[in-house]
């Protein structure tokens, strides 16, 4: 399905469309558990007018070993309905972590479940506030709306598919973690029992894409150069991976911005791979 809206919107564009009847805002702020941050409390203290809070750790598969594992279509649809997010709306997602960290994850999730009218606010809350645009601390009470979720299998890969890609090299595996984590030079933050990376995978730290103002995305020509310098062939199939499936979505969104719209995400990522002693690891 072709994209009906731009993947990125600017703060100026969003401010001009803030009162549009079909535009809904989502605060997808998220932080590593070790950060000590309370993102919901931060949202309650200051959010974009009318924005609802989307918690990727709550809208997730119940009892899954990995945090924020993508849920079933039924669970996703129920959560969206409760947040007042429905069919036919243009959803604009932002976060306050700099650029599009969990915002990219939520962008991917909506596309995964068939909702293509979704954009990310470039530069997030920081870029919005830098222009002196308004924030609010009033509670948001959304009215439930119909939401239909249909899983797009082309946008996600499981461990068996990633293992096959590693062996055959028919799909490129690109890891969004830092070079130090990719090469097992530093400990993994998720208590992963093994360090290193999936054999044959390429390393493209997601931060290399987020060099625009306020941590937003770099211009398309820079994004394309970054992919090329990492050894990624954007004409070939691509699977994005990372630690737990969050920054992998930054790679997926970055690739979309240069015209590659079929990037799949390995949702289990290194959290899952490192815990299976039967899977090979490359240091």
UniProtKB/TrEMBL annotation:
InterPro entries in the cross-refs: Rhodanese-like_dom (IPR001763), Rhodanese-like_dom_sf (IPR036873), Thiosulphate_STrfase_CS (IPR001307), TST/MPST-like (IPR045078)
Reaction equation(s) it catalyzes: 2-oxo-3-sulfanylpropanoate + [thioredoxin]-dithiol = [thioredoxin]-disulfide + hydrogen sulfide + pyruvate + H(+)
Record-annotated membrane-spanning stretches: none
One cellular component term from this protein's GO annotations in UniProt: cytoplasm
Family matches, as CDD domains: TST_Repeat_1 (cd01448), TST_Repeat_2 (cd01449)
Pfam families: Rhodanese (PF00581)
Locations listed in the record: Cytoplasm
Alphabetical list of PROSITE patterns matching this protein: RHODANESE_1, RHODANESE_2, RHODANESE_3
SUPFAM superfamilies assigned to the protein according to its UniProt record, in alphabetical order: Rhodanese/Cell cycle control phosphatase
Alphabetized UniProt keyword annotations: Cytoplasm, Pyruvate, Repeat, Transferase
Residue span(s) of domain Rhodanese: 19-137, 167-282
Chief localisation class: cytoplasm
GO-annotated molecular function: 3-mercaptopyruvate sulfurtransferase activity; thiosulfate-cyanide sulfurtransferase activity
Keyword Repeat among UniProt keywords: yes
Source superkingdom: Bacteria
Protein name as it appears in the record: Sulfurtransferase
Record organism: Pararhodospirillum photometricum DSM 122
